[in-house]
Amino acid sequence: MAYAHGGELPYHTDFPSLSQPPELQMLYMFQKAPNNGGLSMFVDGFYIAELMREKYSDAFKILTETPIEFIEEGYDIHERDGKNFKFIFDMASKHRTIKLDESGNVIKIQFGNAMRSWFFDIEPEKIQDVYRALKIFTSLCYAPENQLIFPLENGDTVLWANTRCLHARSGYQSTAENNRSIFGCYFMWDIVKSRIRVIRDKLNLKENQNAL
Description:
This protein is an alpha+beta fold. The protein has one domain (9-202): Double-stranded beta-helix, CATH 3.60.130. The chain has four helices and eleven strands. The model has no long low-confidence stretch (mean pLDDT 92). Pfam families: TauD.
């Protein structure tokens, strides 16, 4: 969806269709959109969850207890050794929008309305309550005081926690001379922490440094 058109992208986490989505996401701006379009937009999902816990406790309870299915299907074209390969995917996962640990702390956010299944596997009388809870969640994401909006300049890189922060993008119009181009990749925290430990060992850093 993000690469198919220049329209505005709504707030989401990447790959809500996976039970274990990538935990970190990085984007590199190679060529920005003209006329200040394609602005990067971020919101702290943990903060939104805590706002709901404080002000909309019923909606918070629904999103922490109701599994919602997310689906992504289609194909990508990947080039390898000068040849194009078609990679077909059909991903689906059902989970709570807000995940809590045993102590009730928010530990994970997974959401993307464009990827949400139309089907709710719940009692019919609860469906409207789920929609109301999702509307509150989305409205809080778009509250001006909760958003961070800025342009990525050519050469800029942004890194964030995909299972905590939701991201979006304002619309833009590319031209033949200036076609927006951005590169992205994903990481898991375990791999990043492993790399940090290896670097610490090579640099003989003090043992009393905080461990990851």
